[in-house]
Design goal:
This protein has about 325 residues and is α/β, with parallel strands linked by helices. The protein contains 14 helices and ten strands.
């Protein structure tokens, strides 16, 4: 294919580690500049679990940083980790975040019904998987139990909807334990466009990310930004997820594991009324998070790398 199509640059993408191995071999054989898209970190403490596989990942990372022209990550935290891990090649590290697809959102808007998810009351939506460790819902649901006892939830007709959470048994057990079953809604998966249409109608969107994932950003956060709905950031204020929110002008952030803080946070947000200005993303951040904008970033990077190496530059076209 290289001989036939005469590309200007090579690009390989993790999480299939073999893709980087292939990229490495092709870069060595062709002499073309190579961009290795890591997205998230590869070798980590205890991951992969198999020691031989982890050793293979570690060696592959060394080879990638030795031979690639650029290494791309989706979060600032992951990028910084690799700058520290490979200081001699720190200049090769770049950040291109995830994004949303505008065309799919346009299709979702065509499916969108008029009005909020529920005509009476307030509905917050968490769309996607709940991980017991990385997105532990226990402190949040315990906080909701305390807010129920104080009358706050009933006063606002509050419901927290979980869509396609997977950990449904855990959520049901916690809802019963804290006596908030009537305020927790657990719904099955729907199609992607239907899920986006649901986001567009929610009174607020909930993103959950624990401090043990400070270098990772849930991909749905960018869809939340595009939805134009208030965002409740239940995450470590020092993590990358909070950083994206603050960069978009969203200040409604509370640590996911802080039960006392969550009690105050939820009560304050519910009392804030429609719009919740501190929770709404700004338009500049939204437009910059589109996949079209991210693709322009990638094209610019590829053009710069081909110019640096003297390879023909045709990526942006």
């Amino acid at each position: 294919m290289i001989r036939e199509y005469r590309p200007s640059v090579l690009w390989s993408t993790y999480p299939i580690a073999t893709a980087h191995l292939i990229g490495l071999q092709l870069a060595r054989r062709s002499g073309l500049p190579w961009v290795a898209d890591f997205r998230d970190p590869m070798a980590q403490p205890g991951y992969p679990e198999d020691p031989a596989t982890r050793a293979s990942f570690t060696q592959l990372e060394r080879d990638v940083f030795e031979h690639a022209a650029g290494c791309v990550f989706t979060t600032p935290g992951a990028a910084q980790e690799y700058r520290l891990r490979f200081p001699a090649h720190a200049s090769k590290v770049f950040v291109i975040e995830n994004g949303f697809d505008e065309e799919t959102f346009s299709q979702a808007q065509a499916l969108q019904r008029a009005g909020p998810l529920r005509l009476q009351g307030t509905t917050w939506l968490h769309s996607g998987i709940i991980y017991p460790n990385e997105r532990d819902p226990a402190p949040l649901i315990a906080a909701l139990g305390r807010l129920k006892r104080s009358g706050v939830l009933a006063a606002h007709g509050f419901v927290l909807r979980f869509r396609a959470a997977v950990a449904e048994d855990l959520l049901r057990r916690l809802a019963v334990q804290h006596d908030v079953a009537e305020h927790i809604e657990i719904l099955p998966p729907v199609g992607y466009r239907e899920a986006l249409a649901e986001m567009l109608r929610a009174d607020a969107l909930v993103v959950m990310q624990a401090s043990n994932c400070n270098q990772q950003i849930p991909a749905k956060l960018y869809e939340y930004l595009r939805s134009g709905r208030p965002i409740m950031g239940l995450t470590d204020p020092a993590g990358d997820t909070a950083g994206v929110l603050r960069g978009a002008g969203v200040d409604s952030i509370c640590a996911l594991d802080d039960e006392d803080g969550l009690v105050k946070f939820v009560a304050t947000m519910l009392a804030g009324g429609p719009g919740l200005p501190s929770a709404l993303p700004n338009t500049a951040a939204v437009s910059g998070a589109s996949r079209a904008a991210r693709t322009r970033q990638l094209a610019t990077l590829m053009d710069a790398l081909t110019a640096r190496t003297g390879a023909p530059s045709s990526c942006a076209a």
